[in-house]
Amino acid sequence: MRILVILACFLASGCLAQKPRPCRSPPLLTGAVSVSTQNEKLLVYAKYLYDGLGERIRLFEFGTYENKSFTADVLLLFREEVMYEIDDKSKTCVKKPLKADFQPMEIPQNASLLGQVILGSSSGPGQGLLVNTWMGDLPNDAGKYIVTVTEFGCIPVSEIVHTEQFGWMLTSYFNNVIGISDPDKLNPPDFCLEEDVNFDNKEKPVDFFSLFLDKN
Predict the structure, then answer these.
(1) Which residues pair with 69 in a beta bridge?
(2) Distances in Å between the alpha carbon of 28 and those of 64, 76, 144, 155?
(3) How many Cβ atoms sit within 10 Å of the Cβ of residue 74?
(4) Cα 20 to Cα 107, 121, 134, 157, 189, distances in angstroms
(5) CA-CA distance, 210 to 181, in Å (whole number)?
(6) How many Å apart are CA 37 and CA 21, to the nearest integer?
(7) CA gap 204, 187 in Å, rounded
(8) Cβ–Cβ under 8 Å, residues 26 and 149
(9) Phi/psi at 77 (nearest 5 deg)?
(10) Where are the beta strands (DSSP E) in the chain?
(11) Handedness of CA 108, 112, 115, 120 (dihedral sign)
(12) Strand pairing report for 68-77 and 82-87
């Protein structure tokens, strides 16, 4: 009888449930994000293009910082250590040094699993989303992170990062699509190259956090 019970359990897959493992998101993603900070000074909505193979990110942002509205179009080229602030209307660019290391969309092997839950409902098909939440340390002792990704596909859902400088920052991902429909948007526009844009010597190197927070 005990053997029959064990066999029935295996056939129902209830005994075969595997513990979630660290994963890597698809190398090419398109979608949107919202970013907010604990001190409520920053609120950003951005469309993004993510190229994990070429280590490139394009962000089309608008939001508020310290009650002031802003818009921005930035291209981050991590291998070249360069960031372009692009203005399509005026056909101008500002080129800045980029000091941040590229952080692929992935769950590191040393991350700790906090748990697995269903967002929405498990009452019927299509009513819920199975996700895994992980916690770990940012590189170079920069702070802590908590990341939630889908169980199937490792698609990012949310990320909470804590740093001494900014406190908690919440990033929520939505409308994610695998692939990039217009890869040219991950290259500097022709007018940036034609004008042979040089670094502004007065500009300090930017990192990912100052990209959002240095809005004057």
Answers:
(1) 64
(2) 28, 15, 26, 11
(3) 20
(4) 11, 20, 10, 16, 41
(5) 28
(6) 29
(7) 23
(8) no
(9) -115, 95
(10) 28-37, 42-51, 56-65, 68-77, 82-87, 92-97, 112-120, 128-137, 144-150, 156-163, 167-178
(11) negative
(12) antiparallel
Q: How far apart are CA 110 and CA 136, in angstroms?
A: 7
Query: Strand 167-178 vs strand 56-65: parallel, antiparallel, or unpaired?
Result: unpaired
Residue 138: pLDDT band with limits 50, 70, 90: confident
Closest CA to 52 of 27, 73, 77: 27
137: burial class by Cβ within 10 Å (0-12, 13-18, 19+)?
middle
Nearest to 213 by CA among 97, 70, 112: 70
Of 99, 100, 77, which is closest to residue 197 (Cα–Cα)? Answer: 77
Distance CA 8, CA 14 (A): 9
DSSP one-letter code for 185: G
Instruction: Scan for tokens 């697995």, then name that residue.
Output: 116
Closest CA to 49 of 63, 37, 61: 61
Query: Which helix (H) or strand (E) segment is 6 a member of?
Result: helix 2-11
The most confident of the ranges 67-76, 100-109, 147-156 is 147-156
Q: Six-digit token pair at 55?
A: 């280590």
pTM: 0.83
Which pLDDT band holds residue 1 (cuts at 50, 70, 90)? very low
What pLDDT is recorded for position 186?
A: 97
Q: Residue 172 burial (CB < 10 Å; 0-12/13-18/19+)? A: middle
